[in-house]
Amino acid sequence: MKDLKNYDTKLLKDLLFKMLLIRRFEEKAAQAYGLKKIGGFLHLYIGEEAVAVGSISNLDMTKDYVAAAYRDHGHALATGLDPNSLMAELYGKITGCSKGKGGSMHFFDYKKHFFGGNGIVGAQIPVATGIGLKIKYNKEDGVVLCYFGDGAIHQGAFHESLNLAKIWNLPVVYICENNHYGMGTDYRRVSAIDDFSIMADSYAMNGKQVNGMNVLEVYEATKEAIEIAKNGTPVLLEAKTYRFKGHSMSDPAKYRTKEELEKYKQKDPIISFKELLKENNIISEEDFLEMDKQCKKIAKDAAKFAEESPEPDLDELYTDIYA
Q1: How far is CA 273 from CA 19, 23, 44, 136, 307, in A?
Q2: Looking at the whole model, is its pTM more than 0.85?
Q3: CA atoms in the 13 A half-sphere facing the CB of 238
Q4: Backbone angles phi, psi at 247, to 5 degrees
């Protein structure tokens, strides 16, 4: 990782702001879920913010693409999707990014190159591979970042996609967000290896393991991976991270100890990065508190927008159907 003096100050502050926005947005969503204003499932990304923010900050969303799994709030916010439309989607309102039909697991905006939000484990991996083929076929200057959890890495779709991506030399960076648990199962109980990045060797691709709790380390690794991918070799990154909440709001996470959770909270990516910026006189505690105030207001305004938005008409049941 470079010395902080080699980074643009605006970029550093932006990384912190985006991570904080994701955290406050999700805390507000969790509160609304507890009040039964949001139905269905709600998979929170709290603790993992450095992965989405660090990687997506390398993209130009006018030509690059993102495909994510069902734990997608952080990726959508990092790409710049409107917090109001995202919160409205959680509330099931017509003003939501998927017209209130998708909910938490199906944030989507193809015009802004955000291809989900996919509810089926691993389903986005071949989708991202297809987008990579489209970029290459049309000779575009773009790249795809494809996110999936450690629970998806043993899916056949993962292996088939990486194989095709290398055969066709597609501009795709596959990013495994290893948060330690596939639902409630420790990844070490179901995997023959504990360094997923070495799976890249099976497909003659570059692979790298990165500290997913460090936003700058993710930023640098992804920047390097994008350059390699655009030059014709897809890349597999494994970001070692940790979710502070259960698999979803209905999961009390009894499969892990309080001591383990506390150990990772000491590595909170937001607090760690804030302290780093303070130590280097890039921000003050007052700057951080003001930033936090702004993020809380955005989240609060988004919830107000969602609550005041109308429900979809019944006729919406028959629109946006692919058959």
Answers
A1: 10, 14, 20, 36, 33
A2: yes
A3: 21
A4: -55, -45
**The Cα angle at residue 25 between residues 21 and 28, in degrees rounded to 5:** 145
Q: What is the mean pLDDT of the chain?
A: 96
Q: Name the band, by pLDDT with cuts 50, 70 and 90, for residue 323.
A: confident
Angle between helices 215-230 and 49-56 (to 10 degrees): 40
Dist CA 45 CA 243 (whole Å): 6
The CA distance from 17 to 293, in Å, is 11
Amino acid letter for position 307: E
How does pLDDT run across 10-20, given as a tens digit for each residue?
A: 999 999 999 99
Angle 155-160-163 (CA atoms, 0-180°, nearest 5)?
130
Scanning the structure block, which residue is given the tokens 């302290």? 275
Phi and psi at residue 205, to the nearest 5° = -115, 165
Find out whether 141 and 112 touch, Cβ atoms under 8 Å: no
Q: Supply angle C-alpha 186, 192, 198, rounded to 5.
A: 105
Sequence letter at residue 22:
I
Residue 239 corresponds to which tokens in the numbers above? 């970001």
Cα torsion 47, 33, 307, 100: sign = positive
- Specify the pLDDT at position 322: 84
d(CA 282, CA 291): 13
